[in-house]
Amino acid sequence: MSALLLGTRRLLTRVPLWPPSPSLAARALCEAEDTGKAAGESQPPRPPFDLSLLEILVCPLSKKPLRYEESTNELINEELGIAYPITDGIPNMIPQAARMIRKEKQEDESERA
Questions:
Q1: Which of 73, 77, 98, 97 is nearest to 86 (CA)?
Q2: Mean pLDDT of 63-80
């Protein structure tokens, strides 16, 4: 029985510690932010969205074509009233990541009236 426990202890001590400790992750994030924000430097412009992707991308929910909105850097589905964000030039087509825009438009119209 003790040999079995000893073997179990060896396995437990060899398991890598994953995910890394929060302090290491926070330190790495702070270092990355510090290098990008040197004195007098502005943040680099975001990578442009490749408009040729609009020919093949469709909304994963309705399968309808999308429209690119440059001011918000999003792909818009007018029919459903949702906007998919574009991060670093890559569209995030996960429905849970999309934001509702139809409600925002209705609120704007009601405020104007």
A1: 73
A2: 94
Pair 67, 76: CB distance under 8 Å: yes
What fold is seen in the domain 51-112? N-terminal domain of TfIIb (2.20.25)
If one compares 90 and 105, the residue with the highest pLDDT of the two is: 90
Q: Domain residue spans in the chain?
A: 51-112
Long-range contacts of residues 59-65, Cβ cutoff 8 Å, at least 24 apart: 59/84, 60/93, 60/94, 60/95, 61/95
Instruction: Answer yes or no: is pLDDT of 18 > 70.
Output: no
Query: What's residue 49's pLDDT?
Result: 87
Give me the helices (H) in the chain, please.
2-14, 22-36, 102-112
The dihedral over CA atoms of 33, 36, 39, 41, expressed in degrees to the nearest 10, equals -140
pLDDT at 39: 47
